[in-house]
Amino acid sequence: MRFQGAKNVVRVAALGDIHFKLDSKGHFRELFERVLQEADVLLLCGDITHFGLTEEALLFIEEAARVLREIPVLGVLGNHDFESGNEAAIHRMLSESGIAMFDGNSQKIYGIGFTGVKGFGGGFGARALQPWGESAIKNFVQEVAAETQRLASGLSKLEPGPKIVMMHYSPIVGTISGEPAEVFPFLGSSALEEPLNRFQATAVFHGHAHSGSFAGKTGANIPVYNVSIDVLKHHFPDRLPFFVLQVPVES
Fold this sequence. Notes:
Layout: E1 9-15, H1 29-38, E2 41-45, H2 54-63, H3 65-70, E3 73-76, H4 87-96, E4 100-101, E5 106-109, E6 112-116, H5 135-156, E7 163-166, H6 193-198, E8 203-206, E9 215-217, E10 223-226, H7 229-235, E11 243-248
Parallel strand pairs: 1-2, 2-3, 3-4, 6-7, 7-8, 8-10
Antiparallel strand pairs: 1-11, 5-6, 9-10
Helix pairs in contact: 2-4
């Protein structure tokens, strides 16, 4: 691994929704080469594969081989990675390739504490889904409660200093603005916001909302970035679709 950033600053690159398919070979090579020039750490915010196939994961690993050798790469799974029931195998393959996969665990790299979860839906604020009625509804709400608990657990293990969180689903409504209102409950949950505020995260990255907005803030003024590739292409039309945040750290 090599670190080429400025003294006391770590350049954290992030992107989500790669959706690597069986015919995607070569499509992301230039992007990864540019990441190596501009970043010290890379975050993958879910939907690494398109149909959740192990063959897609293998091809992605081959495409990303150089970046995996040269800088730390961290990731979470997204809903597409679950599509074919191979999520455990995909998680294992990505981990064995050198990607630090997160599901409520935490890690410190270059003075920054990192944690992440997939997250889940459920909606936002007073209109969020509540655990009442049929078992299917209660199970849905329980899923986001479990993801929120994993997120809180990961944040609680981080030492004082910068804390970066990655997830697939959004913790705020601000970064899904632009999507049809009908699908808001399936793009994230405000339950995920509470531990971010309580443990004072430095910044949060997510994907999933392909037609959402690039940036927003939690109620505690923590910046949240929607780094879905489609959003980045729209917001930064003159550059390759990844976002770099410069994070100050102690020497």
